[in-house]
UniProtKB/TrEMBL annotation:
<keyword id="KW-0812">Transmembrane</keyword>
<dbReference type="InterPro" id="IPR031563">
    <property type="entry name" value="MOT1/MOT2"/>
</dbReference>
<feature type="transmembrane region" description="Helical">
    <location>
        <begin position="302"/>
        <end position="325"/>
    </location>
</feature>
<keyword id="KW-1133">Transmembrane helix</keyword>
<feature type="transmembrane region" description="Helical">
    <location>
        <begin position="177"/>
        <end position="194"/>
    </location>
</feature>
<feature type="compositionally biased region" description="Low complexity">
    <location>
        <begin position="450"/>
        <end position="462"/>
    </location>
</feature>
<feature type="transmembrane region" description="Helical">
    <location>
        <begin position="152"/>
        <end position="170"/>
    </location>
</feature>
<protein>
    <recommendedName>
        <fullName>Sulfate transporter</fullName>
    </recommendedName>
</protein>
<feature type="transmembrane region" description="Helical">
    <location>
        <begin position="261"/>
        <end position="282"/>
    </location>
</feature>
<dbReference type="Pfam" id="PF16983">
    <property type="entry name" value="MFS_MOT1"/>
</dbReference>
<feature type="transmembrane region" description="Helical">
    <location>
        <begin position="371"/>
        <end position="395"/>
    </location>
</feature>
<feature type="transmembrane region" description="Helical">
    <location>
        <begin position="92"/>
        <end position="112"/>
    </location>
</feature>
<feature type="region of interest" description="Disordered">
    <location>
        <begin position="427"/>
        <end position="462"/>
    </location>
</feature>
<keyword id="KW-0472">Membrane</keyword>
Length: 462
C-alpha cells in the first residue's frame, strides 16, 4: 500500500505540461506506420490501441522512466512494401518476440551488450537518427509550396513554420510536441467534417470496442513472415531496442539503470501476447526515448499518460479512427520525426566520454562513422552492426598487433561463462580486445594492475 501511495505521489509531482508534451514526442514514428498498416488491413487498430496502451502503462510502471513502445520498423517496412497479409505480419512479430525473449530469459542478450563495442552502438544510434530524418523527408516529398484549397492544411509552409517553432522552443519548456499535435488534430477534424466532408472516408463512431480478432497463421504464412520480415528485425531489436536503449537510459537517467535482459524479455512478452490479437508488432527503442525526452519527458508519467489515451481511444472509438488518422498532416508529423532523429543522432557525441588516448578517440570515430554509413546505405541495422564490428576488429589488430590481440581474444572467450552468469559484473571482466590502449605507460600499468584489464580500456566507456 505504501508503494502505491509513493507511486501516486510521484505521478502527481511529475504531472506537468512538459510531460504531456513529451508523451507525444514519438508520434512522428508511431502514427505514419500505424496509419499505413491499419489502412492496408495489416493490423487490427482496436487491438493495437488496446495493447500498445497497456504496454505503455506497464513499461512506465516497471522501468520508472519514459521507455517508449514503438513499431518494429524493419517488419513494418517489409510488410508494407510487399503487401503482406495480417497473418504474415503477426507471424513476423511472433517469431522475433520468441527469439528476443529467449535471449533475455537465458541472459544471452547480456553477452551482446558486453561484447559489442560502444563505438558500434553509438554508430547504430547515429545511423538510426539519420534514418529517422530520411523518413521525415519521405513524408513530405509530395507536398508543395503553392497553397490551395486542396492542400491548405498540408504544405511546405507548415513544414517551415513548424520547424522554426520547434527549434525556437528547443531550449525552453514550451510543450512544442503537444502544440503541434493539437494543431494537426484540429486540421484533421476540419478536413473531415468541413472542407473534405464529401470524401467517402468512414467517420469515427463512439462505442464499446475490444480486441476480437484472433490470428491463426498457417505454417506457410509463419515461414514467409519470419524469413521475409522477421529475420532482418532481430539484429535491429537486439542492438537498437535493447543494447542501445539500455545505454541511452544510463545517459539520460543514470539512477534508473535497466539491464538488457529485462528489456529483451519485455519486448518478447509484448508481442507474444498482442500479436495473436492482430496488434502491431512493437518494441522499445532508443529513438523513441530520445524523441520523448527532447519534447519534455523526464519520468514515467509521460508514457503512462500516452498509454491511458491509447487505451481510452481503443475502447471508445477503436478501428473507426482509421479515417480521421488519414487526415493528420504529414507536414507536422515529419517535423516531429525530424526532431526525434536529430535528438537520437546527438547521443553519439558521447562516444569518447572518458577516453583520453587520442589514437583510440580517432578509432572510435572511424568505427562509429563506418557503422552509420553502412546502416544508412543498406537501411539495415544488421549490416551496420557487422560492418562496425569488422572495422573495429581490423583496427584493433593493427593497433595491438596480431599476437597481443589474439591473447586478449582468448581471454575474452575464457571469461564468457562467468559473464553469462553475472549480470552485474560488466565492469570487472575483459571483453573483446577492440579498444585496448596501444601502449601503457608505467604509471598506467600500475593503475590497471599486472593481471587485470578494465572494461573501459577495452571496449570504451558506456
Amino acid at each position: 500500500m505504501l508503494n502505491l501511495r509513493g507511486r501516486y505521489r510521484r505521478f502527481v509531482e511529475h504531472l506537468t505540461i512538459q510531460e504531456v508534451s513529451g508523451s507525444l514526442g514519438d508520434l512522428g514514428t508511431l502514427l505514419p506506420v500505424m496509419i499505413s498498416l491499419a489502412v492496408a488491413g495489416q493490423i487490427d487498430l482496436t487491438s493495437t490501441l488496446w495493447f500498445t496502451g497497456i504496454w505503455n502503462i506497464a513499461s512506465g510502471l516497471f522501468f520508472e522512466s519514459p521507455v517508449c513502445v514503438q513499431p518494429m520498423k524493419a517488419i513494418a517496412a517489409v510488410v508494407l512494401s510487399s503487401n503482406m497479409s495480417i497473418e504474415e505480419n503477426m507471424s513476423a512479430g511472433l517469431s522475433v518476440a520468441a527469439v528476443i525473449f529467449f535471449l533475455g530469459a537465458t541472459r544471452t542478450i547480456h553477452l551482446v551488450s558486453n561484447y559489442t563495442p560502444t563505438s558500434v552502438v553509438r554508430g547504430l544510434q547515429l545511423g538510426t537518427g539519420v534514418q529517422l530524418i530520411k523518413k521525415a523527408h519521405d513524408l513530405i516529398t509530395k507536398l508543395q509550396w503553392h497553397i490551395s484549397y486542396a492542400n491548405w492544411s498540408d504544405n511546405f509552409t507548415w513544414v517551415l513554420l513548424a520547424t522554426i517553432f520547434v527549434f525556437a522552443c528547443y531550449r525552453t519548456k514550451v510543450p512544442s510536441a503537444l502544440i503541434l499535435f493539437l494543431i494537426g488534430l484540429l486540421f484533421a477534424l476540419i478536413r473531415m467534417f468541413v472542407t473534405d466532408k464529401s470524401t467517402v472516408i468512414p467517420h469515427p463512431v463512439a462505442g464499446g470496442y475490444y480486441p476480437n480478432t484472433i490470428i491463426h497463421p498457417t505454417p506457410a504464412e509463419f515461414r514467409t513472415g519470419f524469413l521475409n520480415a522477421g529475420l532482418g528485425q532481430i539484429p535491429l531489436t537486439c542492438l537498437n531496442s535493447v543494447v542501445a536503449l539500455s545505454i541511452l537510459i544510463d545517459d539520460l537517467f543514470p539512477e534508473k539503470h535497466v539491464n538488457t535482459a529485462s528489456i529483451s524479455m519485455s519486448v518478447g512478452l509484448m508481442n507474444l501476447i498482442g500479436c495473436w490479437f492482430g496488434a502491431m508488432p512493437v518494441c522499445h527503442g532508443a529513438g523513441g526515448l530520445a524523441g520523448q525526452y527532447r519534447f519534455g519527458a523526464r519520468s514515467e508519467v509521460s508514457v503512462i499518460l500516452l498509454g491511458l489515451c491509447k487505451l481510452l481511444l481503443g475502447i471508445i472509438f477503436g478501428s473507426s479512427l482509421v479515417g480521421l488518422l488519414q487526415y493528420f498532416p504529414n507536414s507536422l508529423l515529419a517535423v516531429m520525426l525530424f526532431v526525434s532523429g536529430v535528438e537520437l543522432a546527438h547521443a553519439a557525441q558521447a562516444i569518447n566520454r572518458g577516453v583520453e588516448n587520442n589514437t583510440i578517440r580517432a578509432e572510435n570515430w572511424t568505427i562509429m562513422l563506418a557503422t552509420m554509413g553502412a546502416l544508412v546505405a543498406f537501411s539495415n541495422d544488421g549490416i551496420g552492426f557487422v560492418t562496425g564490428l569488422v572495422v573495429a576488429v581490423l583496427l584493433s589488430v593493427q593497433r595491438l598487433g596480431v599476437q597481443a590481440w589474439w591473447e586478449h581474444f582468448v581471454e575474452a572467450i575464457r571469461v564468457l561463462p562467468s559473464k553469462w552468469k553475472d549480470q552485474h559484473g560488466e565492469s570487472q571482466s575483459p571483453c573483446l580486445p577492440l579498444h585496448q590502449p596501444i601502449a601503457l605507460s608505467p604509471d598506467e600499468s600500475e593503475d590497471l594492475g599486472s593481471s587485470s584489464i578494465s572494461k573501459s580500456s577495452i571496449i570504451g566507456p558506456r
